[in-house]
Write a structure and sequence with these properties.
The protein is mainly α. 72% of the residues lie in helices and 0% in strands. The chain has one domain.
Length: 256
């Protein structure tokens, strides 16, 4: 645990060095979400308060669950930079997790004032839900964050087999955007795509906690869906461990 905290601390310090870039990245995500919200508010479809609550929570949950490590993992594999971690007592994935958490903590510092300003401008109100719903929401956010991180890690370690995984990352990014609820709420998708989303991991990497907190789901469905989400979490962890072990068999270190 101490070593993991050290990774997070180092990531915090490194991120603060580039705080201007981090602020721009955070701002770009806010602009994209804000434009989408404004478009929905001008369609006269559904409740305006639903869209305000949905995209407000999307900004927060989207950041907490975000992961962007696949490109760095691919690069580390191609240039042989994972070799030192293979002889260290702490796994490479823990190093990546520490970096991920450290950078997100800095981004939260930039995001919270923006959320407060947008909340005042759009007259945001918190949904009135039972405590059990808030508990389910928090649990679902934690599960979603781990699922998304592991999925990104899986995409990254395809570099064991692919010289250039850029195309795969693009396919993953577009599919995730469409079926995770980041672009549009899944509830507004046609029935066929909503059913398809239920069988893909992307819903459980972001959309589910948003569905919970915006009252799209009845209370009696919360526990079964959390069980399914936990099952998805275990499945992606198992797949990740399996691919990592197979990848190490064919790994040949090169470069630095």
């Amino acid at each position: 645990m101490n070593k993991f905290i050290t990774y997070v601390t180092v990531s915090l310090k490194d991120t603060l060095v580039y705080r201007g870039d981090v602020a721009l990245y955070t701002g770009s995500g806010v602009v994209f979400t804000l434009i989408t919200l404004i478009l929905w508010l001008n369609t006269n479809t559904g409740s305006p308060q639903f869209y305000i609550q949905y995209y407000f929570f999307l900004l927060l949950v989207g950041l907490i669950c975000s992961s962007w490590n696949s490109i760095f993992i691919s690069r580390d594999i191609r240039f042989g930079r994972i070799s030192p971690f293979l002889v260290k007592p702490i796994p490479y994935i823990i190093h990546q997790a520490g970096n991920n958490i450290g950078e997100k903590l800095v981004k939260l510092v930039f995001l919270i004032p923006i959320l407060l300003a947008l909340g005042l401008f759009f007259r945001f109100t918190f949904p009135v839900v039972a405590p059990v719903v808030w508990l389910a929401f928090v649990i679902s956010v934690l599960f979603a964050a781990v699922i998304n991180f592991i999925l990104e890690f899986i995409v990254g370690i395809t570099a064991f087999w692919l010289d250039d995984s850029e195309a795969l990352r693009e396919i993953y990014g577009v599919t995730s955007l469409a079926f995770s609820g980041r672009f549009v709420p899944l509830v507004v998708l046609p029935l066929f795509f909503r059913k398809l989303a239920a069988f893909l991991p992307f819903r459980y990497s972001l959309s589910l906690p948003l569905e919970i907190i915006t009252k799209e789901l009845p209370v009696d469905q919360l526990f079964p869906l959390l069980v399914i989400q936990f099952g998805v979490l275990l499945a992606v962890i198992f797949l990740c461990r399996l691919l990592w072990q197979w990848g190490l068999v064919r790994y040949t270190a090169s470069g630095n």
